[in-house]
Amino acid sequence: MSAGEKDGSVDRINGIKSTLRVVPDFPKPGILFLDITTLLLDPKAFKDTIDLFVERYKQRDISVVAGIEARGFMFGPAIALAIGAKFVPLRKPKKLPGEVISEKYVLEYGTDCLEMHLGAVEPGERALVVDDLVATGGTLCAAMNLLERAGAVVVECACVIEVPELKGRERLRLHGKPLYVLIESRFEPTSC
Question: What superkingdom heads the lineage (predicted)?
């Protein structure tokens, strides 16, 4: 059951979905890129997106919102402020000054690594991981592993969009990782 069916917010979900676009062959041939930048251009859809996440997490005792670079940075800070949590950026290698811990992972089209400041998360803190999209689940698993290695309890991962064909939800479930998605993607490519 989707978020809209559970909480009566179907109109908001449909409004958000209507602002998204799919860009074929980006970042490389054969990839259909789900673009959320068009959502950010629509203040109502952007606010509805943040509000739906805040409604879900405001009473969950979350003290850390960890956003995955770069699109998790677009949603994570607003959610963190609204629920009274700190924001922790999870960045690509060599982007954070000072001492970091890192986690390598496999993407649907390559490999990568996430880093977090050492000491950004305290043992026992309840964390929410935020990103724009779940595809294969590799990035989300890496983010949750990184937080758990620092001693955090990951409450859930929150994404705007899911690409079900890439089976990220199943990968996360097999590893016991929680996931919440606003929109399950069944998009056709649109012109740019």
Answer: Eukaryota
Q: Kindly give the interhelix angle for 43-57 and 72-83, rounded to the nearest 10 degrees.
A: 50
- The pair of structure tokens assigned to 15 is 């409004």
Residue 170 a catalytic site member: no
Catalytic residue among 21, 56, 69, 71: 71
d(CA 65, CA 155): 10
pLDDT tens for residues 36-67?
999 999 999 999 999 999 999 999 999 999 99
pTM above 0.85, yes or no: yes
Decide if 149 is catalytic: no
Beta strand 100-107 with 86-90 is unpaired
